[in-house]
Amino acid sequence: MALEVSGSNSEILEKAKKAAKAGEREAVIKRKVSAILLAQLLNVLDLRRIYCSRSMLACMPKNAADALKKVGVEIVVGEARRGRPRAHGEEKIKSIAEMKAKGAGAERIAKALGLPLRTVYYYLQKKKKKANV
Description:
This protein has helices at 9-21, 35-44, 54-59, 62-70, 90-101, 106-113, 117-132; strands spanning 3-5, 26-29, 49-52, 74-77. It is α/β, with parallel strands linked by helices.
């Protein structure tokens, strides 16, 4: 499992020492990091890959990101979904749109999918706003 870069610098370095003993070569950046902290991590760990969100990469010092690439550390950018998880899956949300396209009313959709009527209206309104953008 990759080293999670979160907490104070001293906590991160302690985690890094444990990860180094376990042979870990990947890290996940979950907070802003300085060039000094990145250099300390490289001294402790033989890093090959760093995962971070687009916003964390933007906060990373440019010279540090360039230096990481030069020493062979790959920076993998992925979007982490923030906030509360959705209560309804993508399939149900797609079903709402499909049923509406076939002419079904909101009440019928709600009953068929076992959703609250207000939820069906919410997703229909959201779809409508997306179409207008």
